[in-house]
Amino acid sequence: MTTTEDLPRLPFAPGANVLDIAPKYRELLADRQVTRVRTYAGDVAWIATRYDDVRTLFDDPRLDRSHREPAKAARVSQSQVLGGPSDNFDTEPRDAQVMRRLLTPAFSARRMNALRPKIGEIITDIMARLEAGPRPADLHANLSFPLPALVICALLGVPYEDRERFRAWSVDMGNMVDAPLAQAAMAEFSGYMLELADRKRVEPGDDVISDLVAAQDEWKLDSSYIGRLSTGLLFAGHETTMTRIDMGTVLLLSNPAQADALRRDPSLLPTAVEEILRVTSTESNGGALVRYAREDIQIGDVTIAAGDAVLLPFGIANRDDTAFDDPDTFDITRKSRVPHLSFGHGPHFCIGASLARIELQEVFSVLLNRFPTLRLAVPVEELQLRKDAITGGLKALPVTW
């Protein structure tokens, strides 16, 4: 009989390089059962890896971010982002509806497409500075971080000159092992966003935070809620896209035939970006999102009890061979019969999906053509993951041309 001490524990031993998923995840996929694991924090949680199970659970209204007794909830890590329960158990369903009604217009596909020229200008400027700089260059520091930071700052109305401050807070509040550091960073970051919201109240602009402030009275929004929501948007808007630029570049440079095909045929950009999103995951946690059962949930032969934590590793579900043919192969012409789960599914589908897709399409359309001889400056085996950060990603991405 398996005891909790015998359960597999995160983080799992990594694969051969940053593009591989951990061998233990492959075992869990092959087993095809919803099972229990120990988290980074040492607590017990359920984990689903099958595509169908992960998609079903994403869509289940009985799974939410909040917990009736948050102090007693299993934690995934000490991170203040996706590390444990969030939101208010009694009001989360209503709050989620309000958030989507407030933010959907700001992040609509139409509005995001209108941003393409501005994103293109930002990319052109960044590429010119990259081209004029020394080689080898760290693409992570010179492109992957500044691009999404500039874009999300413009959209939210955050001064870009403060980027190093919120970058440091983002790194610290996503730290998976140092609870005091993560908590202090979250408090400082939220406080900064509250101060910014107060300034927008006096001097509003054409930006998302100004829109939230303007809607505060109508929707009876608490100021702290605006602070938390703005913090989450800024964090997600630059950290996750940054990781995809890094990993997408490694994928393309490790598969030169695919990169050449994309250079020859720009019409492949949309499917190439979807494939990058499918194949890349934050290996630090398998791209897992944590949810908590509001009531008992039966899935297959397993009963998830009310209050239990459930990990939904979308990056692993995207490697399920029952959903995707030859799932470990990077194929920019892939025509999948089901959508990847990198933006989630159902009621919590990522509201920034359109923005992320456009940024990735624009950056890879320019990068590959402006630097036709672009290549890794070190073997892929030498690239290092940020293992203590919830968003994963690379510590650095040395390239030359």
TrEMBL record:
CDD domains: Cyp158A-like. Keywords: Heme, Iron, Metal-binding, Monooxygenase, Oxidoreductase. InterPro entries: Cyt_P450, Cyt_P450_B, Cyt_P450_CS, Cyt_P450_sf. The keyword Transmembrane helix does not apply. The keyword Metal-binding applies. SUPFAM superfamilies: Cytochrome P450. Its cofactor is heme. Belongs to the cytochrome P450 family. This is Cytochrome P450. It comes from Fodinicola feengrottensis.
